[in-house]
Design goal:
Length: 200
C-alpha cells in the first residue's frame, strides 16, 4: 500500500497542475495548494525537541500551518440536497455522492453530471483527476479515505474522473477511496460518481 501511495503522489506531482490556494505558508512552493502535513513536532538526532532545534533547521513543524490545509464548509446539510465547498480550491461537491448512488459507465457518468440540477444548480460536471485527488484524505485512520464529516455516506469504492488515459483513449482514470489509489479502467466499466462544479 505504501508503494501505491507513493506512485499516486508521484503522479500528482509530475502530471497535475497545482491547485489554487490562499496565501500558502513559506515552506510551500508558490501556489502549490497541496494540503499541509499537519506536522507539529520537531526532532534532533535522537528525540523530539522544542522547535526550532539548533542544528536541525527547516523542519516542517517550524512553519505555520499552510492555508492550503483541508477545510470544508457544508451547506444545507440534509441528505439528498447537501453540497460541500472545498475552502482551499473553491470547488463545490455533491456531498453524499451523485447519480442516485448508482454505478455508471464513463460516458453515462459524464452525462449524469452535466445533466444534474442537484440542489437547484445546473453547472455540475464530472471532476478531472486532479480535482478528485484533491479530496482524498491520506491522513484518515480508516477507509474511505475522505473527510467523512464533509462527505457523509462516502463509500470505499471506485469513482470516475473525466480524465482520459492518454496511452489508451478507451480508458479513463478513477480514484479508489478504499486506499486513496489512482488507477485507470475501460470506459465501458462501471464506477461510482461524485459531481463537482466551479474551480479555475
Amino acid at each position: 500500500m505504501r508503494s501505491n501511495l507513493s506512485i499516486t503522489l508521484f503522479f500528482l506531482f509530475l502530471l497535475v497542475r497545482p491547485l489554487r490556494s490562499q496565501t500558502p505558508s513559506s515552506h510551500c512552493f508558490s501556489n502549490c495548494g497541496l494540503p499541509d502535513t499537519g506536522q507539529v513536532d520537531c526532532y534532533d538526532l535522537t528525540a523530539k525537541s522544542a522547535c526550532p532545534v539548533a542544528g536541525y533547521i527547516y523542519q516542517d513543524a517550524d512553519f505555520l500551518i499552510s492555508a492550503s490545509s483541508p477545510s470544508y464548509t457544508m451547506y444545507n446539510p440534509v441528505v439528498g440536497s447537501s453540497v460541500t465547498l472545498d475552502d482551499r480550491t473553491g470547488l463545490m461537491w455533491e456531498s453524499t455522492g451523485s447519480c442516485n448512488g448508482a454505478i455508471q459507465t464513463w460516458a453515462n457518468a459524464l452525462t449524469c453530471c452535466e445533466g444534474s440540477t442537484f440542489s437547484g444548480l445546473s453547472d455540475w460536471r464530472l471532476p478531472n483527476v486532479r480535482e478528485l485527488l484533491s479530496i482524498v484524505d491520506y491522513g484518515a485512520s480508516t477507509a474511505p479515505y475522505i473527510n467523512k464529516t464533509a462527505f457523509p455516506y462516502a463509500i470505499s469504492d471506485y469513482y470516475w474522473t473525466s480524465t482520459t488515459y492518454v496511452q489508451s483513449t478507451t480508458r479513463a482514470w478513477y480514484v479508489y477511496f478504499l486506499t486513496g489509489q489512482l488507477n485507470y479502467n475501460l470506459k465501458t466499466g462501471s464506477r461510482l460518481v461524485r459531481c463537482v462544479r466551479g474551480g479555475p
